[in-house]
Amino acid sequence: MVVGQQVSVVRAALLVWVGALLEAALTPLLEFGWVSPKFVILAIVVAAADQRDLQALLLGFFGGVLTDALGGGIFGVGALAGLAAATISMRAGAMRRKGGVAPVLTVAAALGVAVYDVLGLLAPALAGDAVPPLGTYLMAGVLPDVLLNAALAYLFGAWVFGAIVKKGEEEV
Amino acid sequence: MGRKKSNAASGLAGLVILCIASLVLFTIYVREDEGGPLHTVQLGAAEVLRPVRSLLNLAASPVQGAGDRIGNAFDGSREAELERRAREYEEDAAEAAGLRQENERLRRLLEAEDPAFDYAPLARVVAPVGDQLSDKFVINVGTEDGVKPEQPVVVGDNVLVGRTTSTVTPHTAEVMLITDQDFAAGVRLVPPDAPAEPPEGEAPYGQGLLQTGWEGYLGVNYVDLEARVEKGDFVVTSGRAGDRELLFPPGLLVGTVETVTSLDIDQYQKIVVEPTVRPADLQEVRVVVGW
User: What's the ipTM?
Assistant: First the structure.
């Protein structure tokens, strides 16, 4: 454990901003059916990983709102999903003390993306738009989407997390 | 690397408040009209993001082009030149078949004026947008070019590929493709060598609602079992989309009938349509701004 190590709020906010921008501009180019990288969820999971509760929630909420504004989808879906991702990432903190960063971020990202996908189906259904059958969507959309984004979190999550951490001088 | 905790009660209160805020945003967005504050924010963001999307699309185009070439290597029938010629042929044939019967009625409606369409300037596809449940892209023409919400978007003169949504800025417009599950258009199913009306005593031409099912195919719903429909018939717009009269002008070509099936217990025929243009291949389109 490193003493004096903390996540920079500014870097975390910047990471979420970049994630929202990529989600709005790059994700549509990388879609394969219902599967695509969820940059904003990955960014929120990493950014909220070691924040105070309220800071993490605000990062998730405003990251989601930014995605809603930039992406053109239904407003509120991104905000709620960002909030869920931040909450999951916060609660994963206890697990992190026992294991490495990457596995915990992977689990948090998988859960966050699953919530995002389900909200992405629920919101248009509530708004009266056409939606696919739930079973088909869960199997052909949510499941592969979760696997893809969990893999991305496992491969790059710890590295990005390291980039937003301000390291202290002492190590024990 | 221990997590810093704030007061648990304040964290929970924050979570509840932000959840409520998210639901309030959702409710406002769904209930407000297209000029509402949240829609306006999205319009502004779309305008701001246009250069970024253009750049990313440009950067991704070699990758997409390579993907297309690899796909074509495995499927010789999708040769680009052949597609272009086939599209031209189908356009001409559709004009000879579908438009022939619609022109007479349209002329009467327009009091003998020429029913030619008015187009906005040729538009380039900037980038795909939207969530994974939608099929939309942004083009680089907007209100300053005469484009308004809910206008037909075509390739060539009359091949329908989608319609503009409510997200139209001065320099951009969002287009919902015919393959989007929320797209719908009233269509007629016209034989390639069709006379203006079916001969006396024969079944009427099929009419129905063009939609893309969640199974992924483009189809025509609500076509009566008695209606005459055969493989190879042209699918052209009828000028109706549910209760929205003339959302599309009559006579725009969508594609050809690929399969027709029906069972005795069915109330309607099941029709699958092969679109004339694959939306994924689009690079330049035109918005029909007047008809």
Answer: 0.87
